Amino acid sequence: MTDQTDTLLRQILSDVLGLSPERVAAFTPDTGLFGDLPELDSMAVAGLLTELEDRLDIVIEDEDMDGDLMSTYGALLSFAEAKRGA
Amino acid sequence: MGPILWPWGDGTEYALAVDRGRGRRLLIVPALFDEGNRMRRLTVETMRRLDAAGIDSVLPDLPGTNESLQPPEAQTCGSWGEAMVTAARHFGATHTLGIRGGCLFAPHALPGWHYVPVKGASVLRQMMRARVIASREAGTQETTADLAAVAEAEGIDLIGYRLGAEFVRTFNALEVQPGNVIEQPALGAGFLGPGLWLRAEPGESAEQADALAALLVAGMGA
Lengths: 86, 222
Description:
The complex is a heterodimer. Chain A contains 4 helices and no strands. By secondary structure, chain A is mostly helical. The radius of gyration of chain A is 12 Å and the shape is globular. Chain B contains 6 helices and 9 strands, in the order E-E-E-H-E-H-E-E-H-H-E-E-H-E-H. Chain B is globular, with a radius of gyration of 17 Å. At the A-B interface, helix 1 and helix 3 of A face helix 3 of B.
């Protein structure tokens, strides 16, 4: 499940941010997202959340959407894994 | 290709059109709100390919958007549907193509296609989320539940779009009429494949425009 979530999450980020597969493949847990990637504004975050819900089959609540969720790739992956395992 | 006017209400609205008086004529209902910006280039590039294949097309503005003199908050789902029927009649459309949320307003009396249709409720949910996120960045706490209640009672400003209460109430329940659905895998795979409405910024894809136009040309016959 963990590897699959990681693969799906990189694919979603590539689709939403228009980043090449190579660039997304180079993301580490410490890679900054919100605040570091200029593509990721509030509308893009909303679109990203919708894609996460659809493709990972999870539900994201208002209270999940805090500033830390999108701070780094590692934080987002941990969140997605926890939601899928829940 | 150029702008044309079509009659609506007491005035006129704009459309972008390729009109060489040919027999096959496609009305395209654009993607809605922010998605409309991201899908504009693919839509227009598809129109150019249709032109080369001998097909006329028209892309009307929804009243209350772009250069329209109509107030956005006065629009309703019913008036948008009627407006697209009026545009189709004015242009003599033989077929329709809805793009994403535009599918919700495509005249269903004509044969046509839905390009990756989306429900009204999904469009609104995403716009409300964007507002909640933007508000938090600005230091204001809002919830989507509270915003939904306000929107249905008073109307709401969502990411720069002023929606009336009646529009919100109807739009939330709006689903696409049955029709020929074009899903994204029909237009491409791999890195070229993802839908351009997903992108954080407006983009373009010659490959996807080629594929979409080819589907429409095949479907509209000679």
